[in-house]
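Two records follow; treat each independently.
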Amino acid sequence: MAIIATVGGMLFGFDISSMSAIVITDQYIDYFNNPSGVTQGAIGSALAAGSVVGSLMAGPISDKYGRRDSIMFACLWWLAGTAVQVATNGVGSLIAGRVLNGICVGITSSQVPVYLAEIAPRDTRGRIIVIQQLAIEWGILIMYFIGYGCSKIEGTASFRTAWGTQFIPCVLLMLGLPFLPRSPRWLAKVGREEEAIQTLANIQAGGNKDDPLVVAEWEEIFTVLNAERESIRGWKKFFVNGMWKRTLAGMSVQAWQQLSGANVIVYYIGYVFLMADLQGDVNLVSSGIQYALFIIFTSIMFFFIDRTGRRTLLVLGSIGMAVCHFVVGGLLGTYSIDVPEGVGGNHNVVIKVTGSPAHGVIAFSYLLIIVYALTLAPVAWVYAAEVWSLGTRATGMSLAAVANWLFNFALGLFTPPAFLNIKYKVFIIFGVLCICAAIQAWLTYPETCGKTIEEVETLFAKGAPPAWKTKKGGSRLEAEIQAVLNRKDNVEDVHTDVHPELQKTATREVAEEKV
């Protein structure tokens, strides 16, 4: 189920590297008149602009029609946007196509993690959601080398062919979605309780609705849902009774994922390697190695994310990335020379280093992506999907995605002009921001690892311990499963020890107590 659903993440990855592999090719530079500065920033950030719109749409659509159907709706925008990109006749239509694709990405990037969080068992939830990040990275890698191969095609067929392949994952996703079950928590939310219980049983216990785990988890969902139905409605509910803490956590962790500066490397690694004097095919292949490292190290984290605390990864990852940024900025600031005409004729890159400093820039750019792949890249999506309550999860995750895409848009627009105007200082700024991310994660992000998504509510409730005193695990679900087993034992005792005329009454009383 997760593999099919996360093809939505692969669309995001395809769109990222549909530009990063193309922007330094002669065909792209010639046809679009060597776009640089704000123009290239607008092209690069158009996806994020559309994603902000898509994220705002996603919550209401997901709450009304379901997580699965909202993803299907997103695919229609992708088909339209890809068609516009393939038929582009200039910068304006290219930006328009990327905005349409962005609406799709905004919906899928917010609702796929919601869907995964709501179907996954608590002890594998982190790994299940990490599949979303892996799908993004596979999309980046596959599309990057498609773009690299298409760079050998003459004329505009080069980038048109590359962008046309974006239809493929979208069609595969649309074919697979009807075979996925609806989220049991969404079914419960809209009153389809029998279907919700059966779906939960299919996912957790091979269809056995009487399994203690299914009974215990359904009781928890039912209790929380009833409490939420009596709570405040509308946007106000995101900022009262401790919900502001969740809103802060969910939105800020997504913002820091962007402000860490890693996606600047992902989008514009070709420019960074031009600063290290790598040109032509050497630049393209070296950039591709980064995407392979991204996948390898996120795959490693797949096996450990549910054993390692979310807080630990967020704090240590931010510090590690800060060190990498400071080293790259320091090397460029100390050893670079100005190239006013642009390195390799590219007007976006006006400084370069050679020799050992260049090797250092390349090495620490790779190391930055490795640290990001092990920490903020997967954990930010996992944590943002975990912190919301059932009644606020779809819209709350939309808010988190809005924060992600707003900063993605701002940084996409900012980076090319920044490379021209403040040069190496870009990396110093991101290093400082990473330190700020580590401080906030330490102070305000309670540990959610090993807990059911209903239990996470208590971590943000009034009187909860400070974030730095929370620990992974400690779920109460085991105790609730044991309580279900004890109730079953009580029913069996009634049937063996009580006069037959009293069995029905006693069994009913136990059932009423259970409800």
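The next record belongs to a different protein.
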Amino acid sequence: MHRGFADFLYISLTGVGIRVFGNKEELESGKEIDPQPIQAIEQSKVSIPVISNEYASSESCLPELNQMVECMDNKNRIIIPIFYYVDPLDLRHCTGPFEKALGEHKKRHRDGNLLNHWMSALRRIGELEGHHLHENNEGSHGEVVKQIVHQVQQKLKKQDLIVTKHFVRVNSHVRSIMAKLKVEYHKGQAVKIGDTGVTVLGIFGIPGVGKTVLAKYVYNQLYHLFDACSFIGEIQAKINRHGIVSVQNKLISDLDEGNAKKFDRSEEALSHIRERFRAMKVLVLLDDVYNDEQFSAIVGDLEGLCPGSRVILTSQRQDVLRNINGAKSFVLEPMKQDEALKLFCRHAFGTDSPCEEFQKLSTDIAAATGRLPLVLEVTGSSLFLVKSKKAWRETLTALKVSPHKRVQAALEKSYADLDTNAWEIFLDIACFFSGMDERIPYYMWDDLKYSPSSTIPALQARSLVKIREDKKLFMHEILKKFGWEIVKNENRNEPCNRSRLWNHKEALSVLNRKEGTQNVKALGLKFGAGPTRIFRCDNFNGLQNLRFLKLDRANICGNFGDRLSRLRWLDWQRCPGGYIDSLKLNLPELVILDLSESHVGNNWRGWDLLEQTSKLKVLNLRGCFDLTATPKFPASMELERLILEDCSRLEDIHPSISNLEKLVSLNMKGCHRLYELPDWGSMRGLKELFINETSISQINFQIGSMMRLETLSACDCEDLTEISDSIGCLESLTYLSLKNCRRLSDLPVGIGKLRSLQFLDLSNTLIRELPPSVKNLKDMKVLRMTATSIREFPPDILNLEKLEEIDFSSCRSLEGKIPDDIGRLSSLAILKLSGTRISGQRSPRISGQRSPSISPLSSPEMGSS
């Protein structure tokens, strides 16, 4: 019977022009296997095994099936199994007729590995999606054949897009993208579309990171699942040459398989797209989309696309999809160093690792490429079979100085599109501020009217800068080198005529030669250990437009007059503290003063600067270990950020701190000799207070003060024993950490008034119970009480419906059971109880929510469960 069905399928496939290889007569037992069927399978894009009860009895079918599976794994070939009156479970477990047949083969063959391969192939086929023929659908075999023919046509209708053969790290990316596209992906194959809606995915990243290659690879895995598909590459170039209508016509032609007419007007083409493809499930890949207007002009508002359609685009700009509700994003990062080295070696040596002689050079070159696939491939290919170490070193030097020319060209297009404010901020970050807290340079940019609130997000959207979770600016090395090249090109021969001097040797030369010009906006020095350098005021002649100056260990003296009158930021870290008597500075525009790790004490004459700089917003005194008391703060100061972190000898906060009505952030971490908090006075604007590792014994606030405080961090205050009930006045507090306050045993009842609190960390304290008032903390999301003395699961927290994480791990006195009604915590995702004496564990099924992941429980009696 199955032979008749196979013949019918053969005729139907060949009838629509598909070239088919069909197994003729099964070979008799004991005869050698003809290699031609195996070769045909290797060359075939699709294999269709018809699995019947007798299938495993054949000594030709099993090797062929094994070859199909190998081609699926190694060459991304497609298998469409047909289960002809058999249960796939019998294949997966090698039971029923397959167990008997394999037993007969075992008698004839001594090669156990061969049988294992055959059994593995049967199991793999049993796991695949296929077509099932059985008694209940005997009358519809013709319909099944029709479905199979259509499926094969869809899989073969287009050729794969050309992508590199040297893939590294692609599989994890593909799995993630398939999940975002809501496509069922199993064992390297896209099986079916798991959601009937229209899904849009943007793949973003800097030039050269491999967006297009990854998108093409995903497209090749997917297109057989759709009625029609289209790939449009280099969209920017097409639009620049022939306008947006050329891209629309290409899309229409692809989806209509070349039969569509061409349109002259964009509006008509878009209207056709909306009407023509409502009933077709389509896959569209748009490469290098510039902005959201362009995207909308090509595919419209998506309402004209059939449910089940998928649209993928690549772009450097992450705001392309800002107007598409529910759009997904995938940001492609540069490769890891080991991955980059492997990819480079595949192109440079044809192997996964370098020969010993070129080990160091290969590692250095892979790092200097910025770990970008495009640069790795081009550079590796250019060095293939090149044996000269001199040539390799020259390549390394060139990569260290500036980006590869192809990446440079792509970045220049993106940079040219920025406005003047974005240019300024981009170059500042590239030359000076990568790795810095983004809130600090913000004040300078804001004072210069560079609109950082809108400009920085615009740079982020173009993948030109990132802000990490710790709020630090990050710029990829390739982008920094690109920025350096822009500045160098302002004047290749005379650094004194460039806008920024970030290179120490060039900056030092300009000062020593007194060659400063009005073109220089920012200058940075970087001295190592050694004698202190002293610069006189005349070294700064001509630098009247300087807005950022980094002295770093150097000292200055003399009457500067108006030489630095436009300076916004003086970065004088490690200031020696001497020669100040002969120094006269006029800094009326200064907004940031950084004296980190400087030898400045209470009597330092430089504190006079605070009287002059009425615009000062940031004062950084981190690590000034000579400081025993803070300076006096003038009543006119508009200071917003005061950093006293690691001033390890600081004992007194001058009462004038109450003058700082506009202070937003006060950081006193690591001030070990600070025993009391100051009188806050009218400091009502404070939002962040860090008192970690101080020696305070009590936290007390005046009623009506600190109304805007959002963050209070008092970690590692080992002398802290009391928190006043006044803490309840902090109505805006969202973050409270008392971690490692090892003498703190109680929380005040007033903590229940913190209605905005979202994060509470009481880990490693002596707290035994939470006050009942915690039930009022309705916004709480995270509660951490690791290694506390808590004895029972706090019943009052079961009222906190927004709670997402509870951590009671290592609470060795905690016993009892997880409450039966923990299901009330509908948002709970993480419950950590390891190292407790909890005697039972529940995994409640919460309606509409995922069950929380509960860490393994353990006790001396139970062990682990």
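Discussion point: The first helix runs from residue 2 to 15. How would you locate this feature using only the token line?
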